[in-house]
Amino acid sequence: MNEGENFLTIGALSSLIDQKVKRIQKGNLKIQMLEQLLDEVKELQERLIIIKYKAMEKMAKPPVEKNLFSAENFEPYQSEEPRPALNFELTKKLDVINKKHTPKRGNIQKYL
Question: How far apart are CA 13 and CA 15, in angstroms?
Fold first, then answer.
């Protein structure tokens, strides 16, 4: 539609298009009126496209950000086999052995 014309609602625009289509069917619509009809159809299409995208925006939900490392995303590990009891005596002996065989600073050539 021309910018100088009054703004028509979608319903009024649709009725105007319908009247002109009926005149085409009767065979008494002038070329100038046909050009106006094409402009009105384009205007109606543009408005409907805008309405469509606004409706899609309202229907779309914002994505929910999930913390993948939160406790609710993990299940506690449960082994099917029972855990062996720790042998504290063996652990102490290993600590003593590690201390004996740990190279001291400057004395590394002995262990190479």
Answer: 5
Which DSSP letter does residue 66 get? Answer: -
Is the separation of the CB atoms in 35 and 59 below 8 Å?
A: no
SS3 of 32, please? helix
Residue type, 75: E
User: Is the pTM above the cut of 0.85?
Assistant: no
Over the chain (112 residues), the average pLDDT of each successive run of 10 is 68 94 90 92 95 88 69 69 66 70 59 52
The total domain count for the chain is: 1
Domain interval for residue 20: 10-59
Are the beta carbons of 43 and 13 closer than 8 angstroms?
Answer: yes
Q: How many angstroms separate the CA atoms of 35 and 32, rounded?
A: 5
68 belongs to a structural domain: no
* Cα angle value 63/65/70 (rounded, 5°): 155
Helical ranges in 27-77 per DSSP H: 31-59
